[in-house]
Write a structure and sequence with these properties.
The complex is a heterodimer of chains A (282) and B (379).
Chain A (H helix, E strand, L loop, with lengths): L2 H5 L8 H35 L18 H4 L7 H32 L5 H13 L2 H14 L6 H25 L5 H7 L4 H30 L2 H6 L6 H8 L6 H31 L1
Chain B lengths: L2 H12 L6 E10 L2 E11 L4 E5 L6 H9 L6 E6 L2 E2 L10 E4 L11 H11 L4 H14 L15 H13 L5 E5 L7 H18 L2 E6 L2 H7 L2 E6 L2 E6 L1 H6 L4 H6 L4 E7 L4 E4 L4 E3 L2 H4 L5 E6 L5 E3 L9 E12 L3 E8 L2 E8 L14 E6 L5 E4 L7
Parallel strand pairs in B: 3-8, 3-9, 6-7, 7-8
Antiparallel strand pairs in B: 1-2, 1-4, 4-5, 9-10, 11-12, 11-14, 12-13, 14-20, 15-19, 16-17, 16-19, 17-18
Helix pairs in contact in B: 3-4, 3-5, 4-5
Classes of the chains: A mainly alpha (282), B alpha+beta (379).
């Protein structure tokens, strides 16, 4: 294979280029992983960096000078605050509703056998597999057909709809690992159905429910395509950025985006810490 | 054992022994499968009762109906004097040990055992004392703080038992609780369970497919097949006097020789020859019947030496296997191949007869049982 090996007496020393190849092979995976991370995080890093920029014009595309003003006045652009508030409201409400409904659906699908179980499984899977454009336009058609006014309610309905699937999948995965007789054992030990849920079922699925809820929240804040189609005249934050982008891209957008990223990061770290403490304690 | 438990047991023994469990014409259908078919059963107080049968015979379904986890399609279930047919499990004075133990993974062992007591409002020192006693009963007193996943299978099984017994139920249901244990541990637990049942005096209903397990532990066994009880009795009754071919085959090996009634207490075998059977074994049967003898009841009498009144069958030894404890023979007779287990009680006993030899098989008529022939087939 390598020229170096031929020059050396057979079996005495490994050639230098063979050693080099071995070193490269050892580190290839790490290097590749780092490159992938850079590829994913570079855009975010730029967004964060530009939140400290004082743009020369209305578009925050070229670096001008460092400033903290954007962070002290994060809502200093007309319409920005309302859209952020709306996004957060929709996200909170839709994730709460989707988590409650999705958890119950997951419990039913895992623990019970009923007519329509297979169809329910399929229907739950559908929103995850359907392109957002298709979902959004069909929802729009539905609302228009029933002359339902587009706005807060329609956005909420749409978000709950696609969030349920993700909650179901998350909670179901959690549930599947547990003995199906646990609830029966609780009832055998004099716990009423509510007591069983409170003391046995819920503590066991809680991490899954929380994970599902957080996922739903993130998906809701992030959603553009479906929201764009069913929002009517209301504007969530992504819609606002899109709408304003023709006229201006203020640095405040970067600030809000960075803030969302940091909150998500903190929640993830908190979850990891909590899981680590739970397993450490036993 | 605590003073109160002994007193309670004594009080129960003295009180009018109303049967603890009664099932009356209970049927359970799942869609088009009839799991339990018009089953009626009475279990007396303080018994170790076993429901024995192959997979799918309905024994677990029956147990679950007693526990309240399934509702009968029709029929009544009574616990003591109470009709509990519609009642959910949390309203019955019954506790269950599940096959998978079903210990709560997120609670400590102490909290697992205390669960039922807490639901009933027991607290403080009373609670601590009773949990402690239950853990002592199963020899796991110092494991209170651990979580279930830190325990071995055998320990988990005992905690499941403690968790059920601590509530002092009228009846304890056990759903094949020893299934997941290795052989040695299983045998040990069989004896321990029997001992605990004796000590505590509660009625135990134990579901199993292992006939040896049932015979070791139970006072009374109900052999179930296809949703019905084929026979109910003590281990000895079922083994010595099985009433059907299924029961005969399920509880051990047996030789079934087909024949017809040929006079008062005489059965003429299909291949020739007469066999004397006690009237109690015939139990009014007629028509096509089969005479049954357990292999260990047959005496290999080379040369025709036989006691008066014994039944005799002539044949030729076809196979011989030395097993150590016994020697097993297959003897070809006019009634078909007959298996014989001869205990090697004396040195050299294994050489009693060799393949090809003519032998006489002799046995006492009292050891004969009779079953209906059309139920042929041991499952």
């Amino acid at each position: 294979m390598s020229v170096a090996a031929e020059r050396l007496p057979a079996g005495r020393r490994v050639g230098t280029s063979a050693r080099a190849w071995a070193a490269i092979r050892r580190h290839t995976l790490t290097v590749f992983a780092l490159l992938a991370l850079v590829y994913l995080l570079l855009p975010i890093a730029i967004v964060i960096a530009f939140s400290f920029n004082d743009p020369p014009g209305r578009f925050n595309f070229t670096w001008n000078e460092f400033t903290l003003d954007n962070w002290t006045r994060p809502f200093g652009f007309p319409g920005l605050r309302d859209s952020v508030v709306l996004s957060l409201e929709i996200a909170a409400l839709s994730s709460i509703l989707a988590t409650a409904l999705g958890t119950l659906i997951a419990l039913a699908l895992v623990r019970y056998d009923f007519r329509g179980r297979a169809s329910t499984n399929l229907l739950i899977f559908l929103p995850m597999a359907t392109p957002e454009i298709v979902m959004g336009s069909s929802l729009l058609t539905l609302f228009l057909n029933y002359s339902f006014p587009l706005g807060f309610t329609t956005i909420l309905l749409a978000h709950v709809m696609f969030n349920i699937s993700f909650v179901v999948v998350t909670v179901r995965a959690r549930l599947a690992g547990y003995d199906r007789h646990l609830e029966e054992a609780a009832m055998d030990l004099f716990a009423t159905p509510w007591s069983t849920f409170r003391r046995v079922t819920f503590p066991l699925i809680a991490p899954g429910v929380m994970a599902g809820g957080l996922l739903a929240f993130a998906l809701s804040v992030d959603d553009f395509v479906i929201t764009y189609l069913v929002s009517g005249s209301e504007q969530t934050f992504p819609l606002f950025v899109w709408g304003a982008a023709r006229v201006a891209v203020p640095p405040q957008i970067n600030v809000i985006g960075t803030a969302i990223f940091l909150v998500a990061l903190l929640l993830m770290l908190a979850n990891i810490l909590w899981q680590w403490r739970r397993s450490g304690r036993s | 054992m605590a003073v109160e438990e002994r007193d309670a047991a004594a009080a129960r023994d003295g009180a009018a022994a109303a049967p603890d469990i009664r099932l009356e014409n209970v049927t359970k259908r799942f869609d088009d499968v009839t799991a339990v078919d018009d089953l009626s059963l009475t279990i007396d107080q303080g018994r170790f009762f076993a429901l024995l049968g192959p997979s799918g015979c309905g024994k677990t379904t029956t147990l679950r109906m007693i526990g309240g986890f399934e509702e009968p399609t029709s029929g009544t279930i009574l616990l003591g004097d109470r009709d509990v047919t519609g009642l959910p499990p949390y309203r019955r004075d019954v506790n269950t040990v599940f096959q998978s133990y079903a210990l709560f993974p997120h609670l400590s062992i102490y909290e697992n055992v205390a669960f039922g007591l807490r639901r009933k409002g027991v607290k403080g020192d009373d609670l601590k004392r009773r949990v402690g006693e239950a853990l002592e009963l199963v020899d796991l007193g110092d494991l209170g703080r651990r979580k279930p996943r830190q325990l071995s299978g055998g320990q988990q099984q005992r905690i499941a038992l403690a968790r059920a017994l601590v509530n002092r139920p009228k009846v304890l249901l056990l759903d094949e609780p020893l299934g997941a244990l290795d052989l040695k541990l299983r045998k040990q637990m069989q004896l321990e369970l029997k001992g605990i049942q004796n000590e505590v005096g509660i009625t135990f209903v134990h579901v199993t497919h292992d006939q040896e397990e049932a015979m070791t532990m139970a006072d009374t066994i109900a052999v179930m097949n296809a949703g019905k009880i084929e026979q109910l009795g003590s281990p000895a009754d079922l083994y010595e006097r099985p009433e059907t071919a299924f029961v005969a085959g399920f509880l051990g090996a047996s030789n079934l020789l087909p024949g017809r009634l040929n006079g008062e207490g005489i059965v003429g075998l299909d291949g020739g020859g007469d066999v004397r059977v006690p009237a109690s074994a015939l139990a009014g049967r007629s028509g096509r019947i089969a005479v049954g003898i357990r292999p260990e009841k047959l005496r290999l009498a080379a040369g025709g030496a036989q006691a008066d009144g014994e039944n005799v069958l002539e044949g030729v030894v076809a196979e011989r296997s030395y097993i150590g404890v016994s020697t097993q023979y297959v003897v070809e007779t006019s009634a078909g191949p007959v298996t014989v287990y001869a205990q090697n009680a004396e040195p050299g006993a294994g050489q009693a007869a060799s393949p090809g030899e003519r032998v006489s098989l002799a046995w006492s008529p009292e050891a004969t049982f009779v079953v209906d022939q059309h139920e042929e087939g041991t499952r």
